[in-house]
Amino acid sequence: MRILLGLLLLYIHLAYCLDLQAFFGPKAYWGTDVANRERKESPATLSNWGWEPVQPLISTPQLPEQRVAVFDFLRHIPTTKAERESKFEYLFQTLELGSRGLPVVERNYQVAMAMLFSLPDLDDAKQARMLAELSKNAPTEKNLKPSVPDYVLTMSPSERLKWWNSAQTFLTALPGNSENFTLVIEWLQGLRPNQRQELAKYIRDLPVGEEGQRIIEYFDTWQNDPRQIYSKGRPIFSIWLHVTSPASMWFFHIMFLVIFALFTLGFCTRVTSVLTWLAALCYIHRMQYVLFGMDAMMSILLFYLMIAPSGAALSVDRLIARYRATKALARAGGKRVAWAEAVLAGPQPSAIANFAVRLFQIHFCFIYLASGLAKLKGSMWWNTSAAWLIMANPEFCPVHYELYENALHLLASYRPILQLVFMIVSYFTLVLEISLPFLIWTRMRPFVFICAVFLHTGIAWVMGLTCFGLLMMTLLLCYVPASVIRNYLTWPPGAGSKMTLQYSSRSRSQVRLASFLRALDFSNQITLVENPRSKLYDPDPLDAHAQLTLADGKSVRGGDAAAAAIRNFVHGSKFSWLLWVPGVSLILNAAFRRA
Amino acid sequence: MIGMSDDQSLAEPAPDLNRVLWLGATGAAFTAIAALVGVMGPTTGLDGPRVVLTLLGLIIAGAALSQLPGSRPVWGLFAAAALLANGGFPATWDSFRVVAGVLFGAALLGLLWLTLPARGRLVSATIFVFFQFLGIATAITGPHGQPWLFGQLWGRLYRPYLQFTNLDNAYNFFCPDPGPAFELWFCIYYADRPPEWVIVPRRADSFDPLFSSYYRRIKIPEMAGQGYEPGFILQSEAISIRSERDAVMIPRHPEQVANRQFRIPNNFVQRMLIPSYVQHVAADHDPAAIRGISVYVVTHDYTTPEQFVAARDAKSQTPRRITPDDPSTYLPFYLGSYQADGRLLPGPDGLRWWMIPITAKPGAAPPPVYFREMKKADYVNFFNDFVEIHAGSDGYRKGP
Amino acid sequence: MRPAIAEPLSIIGKAWNRFWFLPSDPTPLGLIRIIAGAIVLYVHLAYCLELTEFFGPRGWWSQDMANRERTGVLYPLSPLTWDKQPQALRLPETPERRHALFEFLRRLPDAPSERIARLVVISTIYQKLDEITERRRLFSEFASLPIDQRSSMRRELRDVGQIIPIPPSFFVFLEEAEGLITLLAPAPSPAFDAVLDWFQDLPPGELVPALEFIEKLPKNRTERLKVLDEYEFWNIDPRTAYATGKTVFSPWFHLTDPAAMKVVHGLVLIVMFLFMIGWATRVTSVLTWLAALGYMHRTPPIMYGIDTLMAVVLFYLMIGPSGAALSVDRLRARFRAARALAKGPAPWAEAMLAGPRPSAHANFTLRLLQIHFCFIYAASGLAKLKGVTWWNHTAGWMALVNPGFSLVYRHWFESLVLMIAEFRPLLALITGGFVVFTIALETTLPLLIWSRLRPLMIIGSVCLHTGIAILMGLTPFGLLMMTVLLAFFPAAVLRRPPTWIIRPGESLTIRYDPAKPDHQRLIARIRALDIASQVTLQPMTIAKVSVVGKDDLAKCLCRSLVLVQAVYWLPGMTRVFKA
Fold first, then answer.
1. What's the domain count of chain C?
2. Residue C558 belongs to a domain
3. Model pTM?
4. Considering only CB atoms, which chain A residues are within 8 Å of B321?
5. What is the nearest CA distance from A405 to chain C, expressed in angstroms?
6. By C-alpha distance, which of B13, B28, B64, C359 is closest to B72?
7. What is the pLDDT of residues B243-291, one digit of tens each?
8. 23-82 in chain A: CB under 8 A from chain C
9. Same domain, yes or no, for C106 and C240?
10. What is the ipTM of this complex?
11. Residue C302 sits in the same domain as residue C240
12. Counting one residue from B and one from C, how many pairs have CB atoms under 8 Å apart?
């Protein structure tokens, strides 16, 4: 599983090489700075424990330019409470009076707001006439230009003038340029009665100073009052959020690829698995919006593989372990070394491995069930028309191939046939996805397993989501019993031609040779024999070399022994071409010359 | 009967064939007589006896068959009886000819069955299994956008079978979403008396301990309540409908969105269901005196949890607490005014198919008690019931 | 066939046969018959008081309406190819307007060519968008004149035409108008306008099909009227229908006389009772099924879950040997067997007394019932997932406060719900739990009922139906569902006598004289009733049959025979054991 995944991983991330900049660079589709900002600030609202709904404290306009105007206006709210009271007196008064939904009140409110329009272009004469009229005890309505709300008429002259001045002062708080001015007032007019009081309240107890500004800023960007949201930002990380220069990006990218390769080979898996997981997450977190199913699967697999002892079998680590074991045995020269023998006997069954596999299995069931049940939500999957959308989707499917298209035409020529195909496709998918999580535990397992493989091959072929399909199938491996896998990938002890290696436990080089061969020899072909004479006295030059006796009685010495042995290993035959690779045999010879 | 591996050695010795044959013959004879009477010309008076005779004949033949299900002649007699029963049932009992046909078919199948070897029987039983459950599948997918293939199968193959056996049901209990409850309100106008309300269902109507009869009555309005379709209304018709609506002095529902306030009952409800209901209601309340009956189909909506737990004391006004059968949870749609015989009253009817509001008066805080327990005074004070106004019945409709 | 293929196939085949046709004990069927029979009987007893209201000639769903639907309903069906159905006309929705339109169609002349000729003026009116209103006004004003005035007017206009030039097209227009006016309702009237409106409103694509429809109407007048009438009533062109009428039947389609209805209903109840106790089950099962169907077919608008389920259960009980166990038939068979044994050795009789014979037929029926049950569950479970409310758990709340069904109309229940709802997380937890449990059970039961988890599934489903019965009050339905569940029980479990009802009877020794025929009859009767084989017989020359150590035979048997002791208080029970 680790190996397959590793390969896919390598492939996918190699694919990134080409558009590294496009996806992860500072000027990527999803730019670094935006990404960072989103990471730090994006709001998450949450309904509270009670029944009262969460709604924005004040309603802000949707039109962009009006938004700008309004927030500009909000930004310039005076910083001190006292100033606010004085400057906004007119607004507060109007808002509060206008907050009751009766028709007459509504009219007054609109009049009061509309009046603001006409204030700026009052010349002094008009001003004076207005003031004169207002200061009368009983002003006549028609002389009042602009017209004022009814309640003003009932005031005493002094109040009236005070009111008039408050209007004037409020005017200074409104934006200077005329468009924004109009936009803001239109916004105020548009407020629904119940929102007016809230607005007044909001402006009144908006925190003074820096904080207030910050709140407005945030409100402007995220359309949420920071005091309302439940949490800010998202718990993600990625190296690509910080590394921006192409050179260093390439450096890291290549490093990651190397790590993936090591992980695939299973070298120091405990470390590389964690690193691989983190590295992959870096890519995923960086480009939230270019992801699809594949990446989700990938993170699942990597996560569990990181938990699991994924290096405990079929890995370089394993080979090293074997090497150490044999060495210990050889050193012991005939004495028993329990742990070493255990290691050589094969990977140890471990509870953690089982645990991890279970995690895989349950998670897989969840994936299937979720996707199966969610399909039932629309009627497309009920009436099987979904099948057609899948089979004729111009983006995913091979409709652009002549052959495929013709095949479709052929099917469609007789309606019932095509409909039958639809039905088989969609109901097969539905039934499998819903029933697998239950049947996989019964004696039906092989059956549903095969069906699942079919499904993913089908998807991979029709929808072209090959990587995804392969990942899913990799995931499916978690249902295959270990013994089956071993039988496929390794060789039962006793296979292949027998060989004997005569060595002397006192010469370190010979021991090294012995353990090297033994580590590679999975099916116990080599029997190690202590050179009898080596105990007695110093070896004469003739015995100075370990001697490998092949099945056919030929015997080879030293460096050639290694090569010969490898050639004779059951699996060795597959790798023996390595020996022709220039240098390899040289290295072998060099390594074991003195053996 | 399915002859796989029951050993027949331990079977009870079969009754005497001749006796059974005689029995079967009698049955066939009965049906034959009935058929003959039918053939012998217009004998309308004899319909009852013919039916009885035919049924008896079928039952007797069936009894014979049940005694000796293994013998072909008995099956043959039964088939004959069924065939004759086709003629035995008079034209006024035509629906029973279907039964006779089905029995005849069954008899033929039975005969076929007897001719089959054991293996053939297994195969045919298997075929039956597939036939049966494919049919169930077509029925099940019905309401959810049926696959075209199932649609064809249902229409061309399964409909008669499933309709007869009444297995044509999708088992959608509370699916896909549990719907609201429905009610039917009839306001009966008399020539001489003040109008009178009839409301279905009422729990009072139920008299059996398990409420079976009540649930039957719940179903009565359901079809009328659910049976509407988004009819595409032609332009000038739509205009006239809207203008006629606006001519009526009854406001739209303030709390409901506009497009929920008008809906057109489907053809079945318009032309069959409601007329039938109306004539039934009329039949119960001396039809002679009835001037007209106006019908409202009422959606009894859910209260949301928010409304349900809202301010529990009557004093705090906003938000008002809404009990599950608060008057404002009833959304009545007016279906028009009918004559006692179920035909529409002639004349324009601007409000037909429109929702009529029942709302709490603004700022009113009625006691959160059940509608059915509310005092008339309270009701009048706290609610605007435009149904009453529209129906022109001051008589306060006691809570459904 | 290559063994590689043949072998798995044969394995599958064997498994299939084992599943469906392995002979099994019919006892579950018998038990289901008894309980289901009781429920069916109850449901139909409930009809007694409302027979006329539901099934009478003027019931809610009136007899003539029911008959009309039964015989007349149209089933359109799309063809097997891709080409579309002849597009249905877009008709006015309001009955008045629709009627006006159809009246117009009825007045159409027989000859198709003439029909079109009469309609030419339509195109003249609607050809220029900007003049439509003007021309329509002109048309309707002209139409509103009585016929003679119209002709005179045309004449005068022609005369005037000599002096001031009037465009000849105008005369043509009037000529054409004449043709249509005679087909329309007298103007001015809503009916008159309705037709013109219709022509005006038809979407561009649909005017041509409409004209085609008009042209293609049958030439024969009566035929044409028939088509139009059906079209107007059913809102479907009868010529596009694939089938007409339902294949349903019922005595209630035909019975009108209240007395007769009562009699029939009474007979039905009797039959159902006989079916329940299992007397002549082969016949009564069929009759019960048909009778129940009769009620369902007559008045679909009042049928709900219970009826659907009854149809299912009765259908399978009718197919299967439901009388082969726990039935009067069975007792009679035992009696026959006992008589036969008295005459001499008879292996079949021994087998008969030993217990009901396992039969493939019974197994087959039980399997059908089980599979159908799974279908019911899967269907209702999966269909729920289509609705949003089941995903976001609000369905739970809806079930809780549904004003029609739930208990919320009771104060204590409402205040309980209120108490819960006060604390939102609690309510969310409860409704959520309810929803998840329901869906999980309904979707998984069909799969897991076949595994080791069967007992768990059965318990779960019992809980579900009890819950529904309590909260939503659908008690008979719940009971019937639980009854079907019995099909999943092993027969052995069901055969074990419920010791908490019947105390195990002690064993008796009975002396009798095999020579005496009356003794034989009595003994046969005893052995028939002695289902727990408590009796051991001692043939000897003796005056009267007697139990060893007991004086009164009849009373002693009534007290101790397992089957009898439950019902020994019935009048005349002791007389059964008199010689």
1. 4
2. yes
3. 0.86
4. none
5. 18
6. B64
7. 888 888 888 888 888 888 898 898 899 899 999 999 999 998 888 899 9
8. 49-51
9. yes
10. 0.82
11. no
12. 299
